[in-house]
Structure formats: C-alpha cells, structure tokens
Prior knowledge:
By secondary structure, the chain is of the alpha+beta class. It is 40% helix and 11% strand.
Amino acid sequence: MTTSDHPGLGRFHAPVNHPTAVAAETARFVAAVKHADLATPVPTCPGWTLADLVKHTGSVQRWFSALLRARIQEPPRTREVDLRLPDQEDGYADWLDESATIAADTFAATDPDLPMWAWGADQHARFWARRMLFETLLHRADAELALGLEPAIDRAVAVDGIDEFLVNLPLATSFAPKVANLCGADKTIGFHTIDGAEAWLVRLRPDGFGLDTTRPTADTADATVRGTAADLLLLVYGRLPHASEAFTHEGDEQLLAHWFANSAF
C-alpha cells in the first residue's frame, strides 16, 4: 500500500509503504520504551505518562485494525475493542509490538483500494494504514522527546505526513473543534522545506480553509514557514513551536499565530 494518484492523497506521492512504515515506527517506539520508566511524563502530551502513550498507540492500532476487518461503510458507533492489555505495565512494550503484528496481518488481508468509510478525504482502506502510520510516528516522537532523545524521521515519510495532515485537517473538527476557527478573508500560508523541493499552500476563506493546488513560491503567501521536512511535520502537529530556531518565517505573524493556535491535534 503506497501513496499514489488517488483523491485524498494530496500532491506529493513519495514512495512510502504505509504498512511497512507502521511496523518500522512501532519497532522504534518499542525500543525507546522497552527499558524506560513508564511513569515518565510526556511534555508534548500534557497530563500523559509513557504508559498512557503506549496504551493509546496500541489501542489505536487495534481499533483501526478492527475497522479494517469490519470493512466499515459508516461512522462506527463505538470505539470498544478487545485490547488484551497486560495487567502489569512492564508488559506494555511487548503488547505494543503485538499490536503492530495484528495491524500487519490486517493490512495483508485487506485490499488498500477497498471503498470504506473514513473521517478523512480518502474513502478507502488505505486511509487507515496511512493514518495509523502518523499516529504511531508522532507518538514514537513524543516518547523519544520525553526521554531526552531527538526523533529521527525519514524525509519521504515526513513529506507524506505533512501532506496527509493538511489534506485531512479541514475534516477533523469532530475531535479537533478549534479547527473550525481556521478561516479568513482569502489569506494564505505557505509551508516550504528548506531546500525548496516541497511546498504547500493553505488558503483560508471566510467559510473555512483547504490545501491549495497552487504550488507556492517565495512571494505567494501572506505568511511563510520554512524548515526541514521532519521539523515541519513536528510543527504542524504542535510538537515544535513555530518560534523555534528550527524555522524561518516571514509575512503576517498574527496569521501564523492564529493558525498554530487552532490547527494542532
């Protein structure tokens, strides 16, 4: 299952195999927490510990796998799934590893082009593998940041993740209500990788916002942010502040502040 020219996949179609990447990201996550103190707070997820982070990620993998096996055609009425969570937290890392195995078996048995309900733009089974990848990757990064480690993120995966986030964000109001505040009088924000190889243009309209098909140039947008693909991915998800030294930006600072105050989930 790779990104390809399908509605809902955005403009960048990097050769990312989402099931393979889910397995790789989970392995990195497991390695980070295997011998860690699971009571460690996670600053990027206020109020959570590493134990909460592991439980959430494994639960998401098992729930998405259940949705795929059920071939859902409408919004699910419940999020209940048999988690088989260990009684002791020292078993959480192995349980997360097992969650990824369940997901891998589900991907192998599922046609990625199968029409399915999804909360995002791409109404096919492949949506859930792609979404699972970035749920896992971001929480792996959360775990590493909590442990004082610097997350390494593959460039192609980061580019795919930025695109996935910006394509689906307008549809995320059911669980990210602040997204409804993202509107404006035809204001634009550009996100550029430092080398200029990838760029995204978000257009805010009075009735909402969306990813523009126009490739932004240096002077296209009302406000522009530049950084590495990995840092931009962490930025759009609220793991790095836009004031960080990792980024350069110009243009309407109030517009950027408004965007970042309402866009992360």
